[in-house]
Design brief:
Blueprint: H1 2-19, H2 50-62, H3 66-81, H4 84-108, H5 114-153
Helix pairs in contact: 1-2, 1-3, 4-5
């Protein structure tokens, strides 16, 4: 059981690193409508054995750059420091964001032919996640510059930068 949980966390974080995300990934919802399934019945899900899951996680980790691997490690350490309540809160927030992106994708693909909708929706959600990650990064850079400017105006030395392992998108552990 611990092994499966570790596999899930590693796979989720590796995927998020590749997408530039920093929030944890909740388990997939019970049903997301697609063009292949009825809206009243969930799609069939292929389950992997432990060895298949480990192999796919290993392959995914091998494709990461050293920076992505370090970010993955830092995020895993930060996740470990969170309380169960903080983890659940982040899972719920991520679930709401995923649901919102999927709803946007479904609405945007309504005029497309049935055979193109699923691919469009998948690509839309992926591109939307990248956009949000980029916007968060840009906003954090602007905020940092603004704070430095305020401190310069007030003749106060800039505070030292946070440790490299600190993830600004995760709440500080108490």
């Amino acid at each position: 059981m611990v092994r499966n949980a570790l596999i899930g966390v590693l796979a989720s974080w590796a995927t998020l690193i590749a997408w530039g995300e920093t929030s944890p990934t909740p388990p997939p919802g019970p049903f997301q409508p697609t063009s292949q399934g009825s809206k009243n019945q969930p799609p069939q899900v292929k389950t992997n054995t432990d060895s298949e899951s480990l192999g796919s996680v290993k392959k995914m980790l091998e494709t990461l750059t050293p920076e992505q691997k370090q970010r993955l490690e830092d995020n895993m350490k930060a996740w470990k420091q969170l309380t169960p309540e903080q983890r659940q809160s982040l899972r719920e927030k991520d679930g709401l964001v995923r649901k919102k992106f999927l709803e946007e994708a479904i609405e945007a693909s309504a005029s497309l032919p049935e055979e193109r909708r699923e691919a469009f929706q998948k690509q839309y959600v992926e591109e939307r996640r990248k956009l949000e990650a980029s916007l968060r990064h840009d906003l954090e850079a602007r905020r940092k510059h603004g704070i430095e400017e305020i401190l310069r105006k007030l003749n106060v030395p800039s505070p030292p930068p946070p440790p490299a392992s600190a993830d600004p998108s995760l709440p500080a552990s108490r």
